[in-house]
Amino acid sequence: MDAQTVIAKRIAQELRSGMLVNLGIGIPTLVANHVPEGVGVFFQSENGLIGTGPIPEEGMAHPTLTDAAGHPVSALPGASTFDSATSFGLIRGGHLDMTVLGGLQVDAKGRLANWMIPGKMVPGMGGAMDLVSGAKRVVVAMQHTAKGRPKIVKECSLPLTSLRQVDLVVTELAVIAFPGNRATLLETAPGVTAKDVVASTEAELVVPDHVPEMSL
Amino acid sequence: MKTISLKDAVALIPDAASLMIGGFMAVGTPERVVDELVRQGKRNLTVIANDTAMPGRGIGKLVSAGLISRTIASHIGLNPETQQQMINGKMAVELVPQGTLIERIRAGGFGLGGILTPTGVGTVVEEGKQRLEVDGKSYLLETALRADFALVHAFLADYLGNLSYALTARNFNPVIAMAADTVVVTADHIVPVGVIAPDHVVTPAPVVDYLVANE
């Protein structure tokens, strides 16, 4: 199983029936491919859609039915559409149960940086700051390291997305949460030891005596 | 509300005007108006919109033609030309969180001086802004935005200017329609009064100034 699939499959286990969930672009989008059987969730696209469905069959796409990247999607039975003020009212107003976002860095207290690299990449924050500030649960989906360098760091060197602590970080190596403001190893990926995770993590990591393996 | 030709509608817009333009990655953007802005070569525009789309589509065409001197948007990441013009100083870009941007526009159109949002507290977005505590929670004061023109695209417009929108092409359109001095609308279909049931009207006719005739 490749890194992205490990991450997406593990995060999909966090889904519960009836949840309203927003998936960011990149690895988070893949979570939709692994929704556990019998679990029915509403996916939101922040451009104004709840009930986002899979890419339509050829010839079935509509130019005004798209995801937040502007790509054609379908709408599932029970879908709804709305303007951007309502879309972000859902996000900030306590109506969004979970958001899954990509990450550039997460610090030891669980604060996320994911929207710019000064001098290199300034795409704009889009909806990321609202999503992290407003969602009931924030899950970060990212590779554990970038070009061999840890992404879970003592302090973010990149501009923060929000002061709000994220709830869960899922990488191809580990599941990490932040109880008591301390990065804590909750699970390791199959074939990965706690030692491996610590070696790839810059932030100090609390390692409980027993760390279960992700069940995928 | 007046009906108007595309050419005359765009002729109303002077150089250096501020424009709110509907659309999200060009979905729901009034493409015909954008094309005519390029054709008439309007200069020095300020554009307030969710994003600058990509080269060759929607607002991306205005970027490529070098018509924009200032942009207020939430995302420019899919248009490398915007980033390039920002870096070489040709275009000033103010990046605003998407939920804050739409609320600032809503405030502008709804008679409010601004809004309080928790988004951006403690980040670079806070720089130069007032932080207020309400019931123990921190918020940023974000001021209202208005523009000289709103360029709106609807799915249906009736002869009086009542509007409804299609699927994800709604996005910023009904919000900007409230927040500009002059509201110019294009629609996929212009239909008799009554075709849009009162409950299905999203933008009421009195806020629309000009409905651009279809060809």
Describe it.
The complex is a heterodimer of chains A (216) and B (215). The mean pLDDT of chain A is 96. Chain A has 216 residues and is of the alpha/beta class. The relative contact order of chain A is 0.16. In chain A, the strands form three sheets. In chain A, strands 4-3-2-1-5-8-12-13-14 form a nine-stranded mixed sheet, with helices on both faces. A three-stranded mixed sheet of chain A has the order 7-6-11, with no helix packed on it. Chain A has one domain (3-199): Glutaconate Coenzyme A-transferase (3-Layer(aba) Sandwich). Chain A has helices at residues 3-12, 27-30, 84-92, 128-134, 194-199; strands at 20-23, 42-45, 49-53, 74-81, 98-101, 105-107, 112-113, 138-141, 145-146, 149-150, 152-153, 168-170, 174-177, 184-188. In chain A, a hairpin with a 4-residue loop joins strand 6 and strand 7 (112-113). Chain A contains five helices and 14 strands. Chain A is globular. Chain B has 215 residues and is of the alpha/beta class. Chain B has one domain: 3-Layer(aba) Sandwich (Glutaconate Coenzyme A-transferase). In chain B, 21% of the residues lie in helices and 30% in strands. Chain B has helices spanning 6-11, 31-40, 59-64, 80-87, 98-109, 173-176, and strands at 2-4, 18-21, 45-48, 68-73, 92-95, 114-117, 131-134, 137-143, 147-158, 163-164, 180-191, 210-212. In chain B, the strands form two sheets. In chain B, strands 1, 2, 3, 4, 5, 9, 10, 11 and 12 form a nine-stranded mixed sheet that branches. In chain B, strands 6-8-7 form a three-stranded antiparallel sheet. Chain B starts with a strand and ends with a strand. The A-B interface holds A 45-49, 62-66, 68-70, 75, 81-85, 87-88, 91-92, 121-130, 133-134, 159-163 and B 24-28, 50-51, 53-54, 73-78, 83, 86, 95, 97-100, 102-103, 106, 117-125, 155, 165-175, 202.
